[in-house]
Design brief:
8-stranded mixed sheet; alpha/beta; globular
Length: 347
Amino acid sequence: MFSLLKLNTSIFGKGFIIPFFMYLCGSVYCSAQIKTFDVGDFLLNNDRVIENCKLGYMTYGSLNADKSNAILFTTWYGGTSKDLEPYIGPERMLDTSKYFVIVIDAFGNGISSSPSNSLTQGNDLFPEFTIKDMVRAQYVLLTKHLNINHLYAVTGISMGGIQTYQWMASYPEFFDKAVPILGSPKLSSYDFLVFDILKRVMKSTSHSNTDATKTALMLEYLLGFTPRYRIKETPAEEYEDFVRNIEAQSSQYNIYDLHSQINSIYNFCIDDDSCNDQNTFQIEAFNGEGFTVIADQDHLLSPNSSRVLAKRMNTEILVLDSDCGHYAFSCEIEKISKAVGQFLDKK
């Protein structure tokens, strides 16, 4: 959810190690730069318009001659294309010696059009958008700007996993492989409760007050990890330092941006039919191969719907059992990267 890969390891806990960071920027893909695609006025599903819409994106690796090796990597909640670099590169989850990786920044992340960077619709004037709007804008960038009319795969983590499911429903013939990681094709009542609380926290104080962001981030730490993890990694006598580190991190986020994306998750619905029927997912049109990653102890996005859909579609599934809960995407990065890499390489 939040871009925790930015955080000092003291917030995760003394024993937490983020693999790959020690040599991250010695690699060739660190030279990648954020590019911008000017979409123009973008009509949303609610008939409102994002004026002078822009999408940020980054590319890694080389597109082959027949354009058959392109992979879309979607961003998580509060995160940017830069935050996904630990998963991209030679011998990583998305191997840039084999694949052309395109990371597109989601609306509301401060890079693509967002409440914080709009010149004409700033802050609470920015129109509400949906996950479906994010995906449709990505489709426009790929087809109209990069001239890519078919992808090898679509993947994403957390909110990126939700976008992956939306891709399966909206453009089922546009790609061959889907890899949703710790996402959900349908929110449960528990998920609604979590995101409703986060929405209310962000609206409960003045948007200029960073306390709302701090409190929201504290809630994510409460729900994102198991109690056993937090008790083990943060001794009680170090709690105040733990909270100060969260406060320092929260200052990097814009409350309007965070609220806009949390709202898109809360309102997520693949289509109207799937919203009204708990047993309907509306992804049946996707005939490609799937590989699903879930965490049994995920208390930020319940894994139940992903598990049910994977079984129904007979897709491969990796089940993580980790006290990192939702943030197993970082704690278990090596296990995830190996499994996803093998799935992508399988022809």
